[in-house]
Design goal:
The structure is a homodimer of 307-residue chains.
Chain A: E1 3-6, E2 10-16, E3 19-26, H1 28-36, E4 43-50, H2 59-63, E5 67-74, E6 79-85, E7 92-98, E8 118-121, H3 126-135, E9 141-145, H4 148-152, H5 154-164, E10 169-173, H6 174-181, H7 186-195, E11 200-204, E12 210-214, E13 217-221, H8 235-250, H9 255-272, H10 279-283, H11 286-300
Parallel strand pairs in A: 1-4, 1-8, 2-6, 4-5, 8-9, 9-10, 10-11
Antiparallel strand pairs in A: 2-3, 6-7, 11-12, 12-13
């Protein structure tokens, strides 16, 4: 088995209306692994950090069984991102991006990770995502994320379209799928993606939940209605972590099981936003995740008055 | 029993990316009654039209048992609204509003309507909404709509807050509840409303679905994922029509039944947007509504992997 994630391991400086934090643990691979390791014990991370990275910050992940053998340390500074959220947390401004050692990131998958059956390709250059896939022997279910930057670039768009032929599930947000497909209508855009390779597409809509389309299914999971959202950073990657961890743990890629995976993803996204960085994941256990899955079901439950 | 609706009966001129229509049947009371009469046979309308109103256009409502005895004809022109939607239908511009006889509208509830147990107060001056309530003898469940115009006006806001003490359910959209409560956060805004009178609040979020909050419940219904949305006009009033008709038909105001009422409302909203004006409601029957309720349940259905 094994669930491999390749992505960024970063230091985030974030301002929200409720506070600020500097150089906090972040990056797509870290949010993914923090969420996934609550459900599944064989999470494997590939990424790169600089000499300045506070490696002991990752002890809580190790304690949950995350294998960090694929996180290499390179000469230079760690990837840093700084951003500020608006009063209602629905808009954000990037204040600074310093790629540091991430600029030269060429993921090399350790031999013992190459048998991983489940793979998540975090948001990096689609050329690198393709390269990672070639290093994994026979993955059973591959999901990938992307972003507008790669969709807009002429060369990276070609690579992304090539990548799509090799992944089972594309995960992206609503503005990204509109841009990728050229269609503002989410349902049609999802069909466009499926015509280009993936069997499934997951559209993340932030506070408006997420949609799974594929194999004749449309499944909707609302965002969990939190009273206090603190910092939206990493919610999408935590979602991916919950989604993929449930699939890896169950070893079941049926449409019915992918529905439940969406709910685990949504639960993890809701935890991510309750604190800065990956802090919330250190406070909770599997029982908390189960409680939120139950509450998600209650949120949409109704009985029909006819057969 | 009986379900009373008081609101506008208008002529709408609408431009969407897919076409345009002039002087089509519209108004909150008409969309409400078109949807409600698919589920329930004792819908009663109170409104006003001008001498120019094409009254035979209402024959399809009469055929479904809608009692139009409360629609009076006054000297002058009918209420007209003209608007244009943007390419993705999520923004709209009002091109023209001519109140006509609606400016002098003083709803007088016919004697035979005053026993109505279920009442929907469409979006009109809260003073008039209060006046309507005083004419109804002993309503069991009263819902009302409102809009930013009444929320912003100093005098109308006072009336609206007075009205809230007498209604069971406030229905409004997300921008309206934010403005009314002064809180951008939907969950807290809902609590604010409930602290001001209504037991329930329904927040309509357009393509992002609708939320019911109240009596310790939070229930979410997604918007039905349509491939083709044609004209969003009237979706909110059609939603209200489905919601109230289910409650009136069942005579059951329990939280569990209000959940199902939300789904009927959502189904009706999804039909409203498939054609111009109230056209879609003339094409469908109860079986189509039931099919959409079933599909709504399938859309959010998942099985947990634990008790």
């Amino acid at each position: 088995m094994g669930l491999l994630v390749v992505g960024s391991v970063a230091l985030d400086s974030v301002e929200t209306p409720f506070g600020r934090i500097d150089d906090a643990l972040g990056g797509s691979a870290l949010f993914f692994a923090s969420a996934a390791s609550l459900l599944y014990q064989r999470v494997r991370v590939v990424g790169v950090v600089g000499r300045d990275y506070p490696m002991n910050g990752l002890d809580s992940l190790r304690a949950r069984g995350v294998d960090l053998a694929g996180v290499t340390m390179a000469d230079g500074e760690s990837f840093r991102w700084a951003g500020r959220y608006g009063f209602d947390l629905s808009t954000r401004e990037t204040l600074d991006t310093r790629l540091g050692v991430f600029a030269q990131f060429k993921p090399r998958i350790p031999e013992e990770f190459r048998e991983s059956r489940f793979v998540f390709l975090g948001n990096i250059d689609p050329e690198l995502q393709l390269d990672v896939l070639q290093q994994v022997r026979k993955p059973e279910f591959v999901a990938c994320d992307t972003m507008n930057y790669w969709i807009q670039g002429a060369a990276s768009r070609v690579s992304l379209l090539k990548l799509l032929k090799h992944v089972d599930c594309l995960m992206l947000n609503d503005s990204e799928i509109r841009e990728l497909s050229g269609d503002w209508h989410i349902q049609r855009a999802a069909r466009w993606v499926i015509a280009h390779g993936p069997r499934y597409v997951v559209i993340k809509k932030g506070e408006h939940g997420a949609v799974l389309v594929g194999e004749g299914n449309v499944f909707y999971v609302p965002a969990f209605p939190l009273e206090d959202v603190f910092d939206p950073t990493g919610a999408g990657d935590a979602f991916a972590g919950g989604f993929m961890a449930h699939i890896a743990k169950s070893g079941n890629t049926s449409p019915a099981n992918l529905r439940l995976a969406m709910v685990y993803g949504s639960a993890m996204g809701s935890f991510a936003v309750e604190r800065f960085s990956i802090q919330r994941f250190a406070e909770i256990g599997p029982q908390d995740v189960m409680a939120r899955v139950r509450a998600s079901q209650e949120l949409v439950h109704f009985e029909r008055d006819f057969e």
